[in-house]
Amino acid sequence: MANKRQRCFVIMPFSKTTEQHTAAYWTSHFEDFLKPLIEENPELEAYRSKPLRVDILREIITHLVVSPVVVADLTDSNPNVYWELGIRQSFKHGTVTIAEAGPSLPFDVSVKGTLFYHPGDHIQTAKFSRDFKEAIEDCLANPDRPDSHVLETISGRGTLFEIFRRDEAIRRLDAVLSESNGNIGILKGVIKSVQTNQKNPSKRTVVTERFRSSAVELLITNRYIDEEQSFYKLAEKYLDRTMMINSQLELWEHSPNATEKWLLEQKDSAMEIFKNFKDKMTNTRGEIGKRF
User: Fold this and answer.
1) Cα(49)–Cα(57) distance, integer angstroms
2) Distance from C-alpha of 185 to C-alpha of 86, rounded to nearest angstrom
3) Strand order in the sheet with 44-48
4) Closest-CA residue to 142 (of 67, 59, 37, 69)
5) What is the pLDDT of residues 169-219, one digit of tens each?
6) DSSP state letters, 125-146
7) Is the pTM of this model over 0.70?
8) What pLDDT was estimated at residue 166?
9) Residue-wise over 248-263: b if at least 16 C-beta within 10 A, else e?
10) Whose CA is closest to 140, among 199, 93, 89?
C-alpha cells in the first residue's frame, strides 16, 4: 500500500484581482500549472486554500500551521494571501513564495527570496519550474531551515522569545524570593517564641503562621530556568525542610515540650538552609537579569 502523501497547501487569490487575472485564471493557474509541478514530488499532494469564511477559518489556520510545505502566490498583492502568509510565518518554516514577474513586491517580503514566473516565456518558465521544485524539496529535506523573519525574531537565544522567557523567569524568581524572605521571618519568630517559652513555660505561646511553598514548588516542578542539578537539589532540600517544620508546628499546641525540643535541635541547620537558599536565588535572579 502506497504511503499517504503529505499536504502542500497553496495560498493564492480566488476572485478577480485584475482584468487579466480573473477567477477562471486563478483556477487554471492552480489546476494546470502549480498543482502538476508540486505533485511531481511523490511525497506531496497539492491543496488550494479556500475563500476565507468564518465557518472555515479554523480549518484554514490548521492547514497553514501543520502543512510541511506552503506555497504562497503573492501576485497582485491580494490581502487574504498576505493574511494567510502572516499566519504561516508566525508558526512554521517551510514556505515558498512565488509571484508573476512584474510590479515589485512590498519590502517586507521582497527581502526574502521569491521565485518569479513568466507566463508565455518558455525558457523562463522552465527555469522557474526547476527552481520551484528544488525549493519544495528543500522544505521537505530541511524543515527547520529558517525562511520566516517572524520566527527568526521571536524564537531562539537572544530573540524576543528568549527575552520573554527571561522576564517570566525573573518574575517567578521574585515570587520565590518573596516567599523565602517571608519564611525566614516566620522561622525567626518560631525560634524566638520557643526560646521565650523555655524561659517561662507558664505563659507559653505558639506561632500560628506556616511556611509558604507554592513558588518553590513551581520552580522545582517546572524547572523554568536552566541550572545545574545542584541548584534544584538545594531547592528540594529547602522545600523538604519547610514541610517538615510545618508538620511539627501543627503538633506544637498538643505536644509543646517535644515540639519545642525538636525545634531547638533543628533551628541552626534550618536557618542555614533557608539563608543558603535565599542567597542562591538572589544570585541566580541577578545573573538572569544581566542577560541580553
Assistant:
1) 11
2) 52
3) 44-48, 6-11, 69-73, 95-100, 114-117
4) 69
5) 999 999 999 999 999 999 999 999 999 999 999 999 999 999 999 999 999
6) HHHHHHHHHHHHHHHHH-TTS-
7) no
8) 84
9) bbeebeeeeeebbebb
10) 93
